[in-house]
């Protein structure tokens, strides 16, 4: 029985399994959920339902139906309020920009106009229209000039909201930069901090496809996700990032270098052990899956393989639902050596020969290490293995743009040698 067939047995989480989010290890009866695919609220709901299914407990069908009605109504009301706020802010931004263009004013005079406008709006509408917020609203219109399908002057907000929502939900031509009822104003305030349009488009697409909360989006921006993914892509790959999001076309595109695990809260310490790092990652599995990216499902830890009486243990095993392959992760505290790469080659070869199903793609291997020599990795793996085994530095703190630029330049120098 395939993994997908196992998932279909659990209709209590049918919404998750239909989206490819649930995986079940038939040998241990452990439910494995690709948590990063869904919003936090939905993850908690799914896990609660799984617990009920496993324990055999059930609830009143009447209560369940009423709960579904009320939760749907609450979600619909919240989304409508959010959409109205987003559209009204864009329209306010348009009024400010067009007023500036008509007056052809100097910057100092425009600043005084905004200050007076903010003071009047705060008295009438509250603190949400401070000078700082009006500047953000103005920037919103400038950054998203084609935000609404219909921008007719004098059209009631309710009509703008209904028309734009229908267009966003049913149009095949929707693209980043246009209104979506599933992106909140807090999301947009985070997106507006990104100056590069392609990067902003990427984060917008990923927010929608991964159902990121505003906090999760802010974390991904702070971790320089776009820049880290861009390191492994050519020009065509960069264009796909901006227009389709992080949809991997080949194995190298699912891994990030560095891998940022600041959510563990671990200090830089010489006494950090591999078992301690592994335990911390599993204790924060949801955050780790979010960092790994869409498609990863956790399978096992410390999985033993035996070869003629010799026993080996694979630190972490995942399955990637997009690439349809196993991903073996080995953790190394300290600098990566050629022996570490050879050990992971052993694991990957074993999985390909003994564990891989006929419809699975070749197994991939990833070493997470605190430091590495890219030349050692290149010449140890050679051309036959470099598309199957990868090495990534882990960072216990958020990287800076200068750090990433330095790593990218070093990698480019190595590739030209």
Quick recap of the structure?
The chain has 417 residues and is of the alpha/beta class. The chain has helices at residues 3-8, 14-18, 40-55, 61-103, 107-125, 131-143, 157-170, 185-191, 197-210, 214-222, 225-230, 235-244, 274-283, 285-292, 338-355, 374-385, 401-416; strands at residues 22-25, 30-33, 259-260, 296-307, 310-320, 325-335, 364-371, 389-395. It has a six-stranded mixed beta sheet, sandwiched between helices.
Structural category:
alpha/beta
DSSP helix fraction: 40-55%
Low-confidence stretches: 1-39
Strand content: 5-15%
Taken in chain order, the helices and strands follow as HHEEHHHHHHHHHHEHHEEEHEHEH
Could you explain how this protein is built, in words?
- A six-stranded mixed sheet has the order 3-8-7-6-5-4, sandwiched between helices. Strands 1-2 form a two-stranded antiparallel sheet.
- The two termini are 48 Å apart.
- It is an alpha/beta fold.
- Helix 15 links the parallel strand 6 (325-335) and strand 7.
- It has helices at residues 3-8, 14-18, 40-55, 61-103, 107-125, 131-143, 157-170, 185-191, 197-210, 214-222, 225-230, 235-244, 274-283, 285-292, 338-355, 374-385, 401-416; strands at 22-25, 30-33, 259-260, 296-307, 310-320, 325-335, 364-371, 389-395.
- Helix 4 crosses helix 7 (157-170), helix 9 packs across helix 12 and helix 15 runs parallel beside helix 16 (374-385).
- The protein contains 17 helices and eight strands.
- Mean pLDDT is 78; it is low at 1-39.
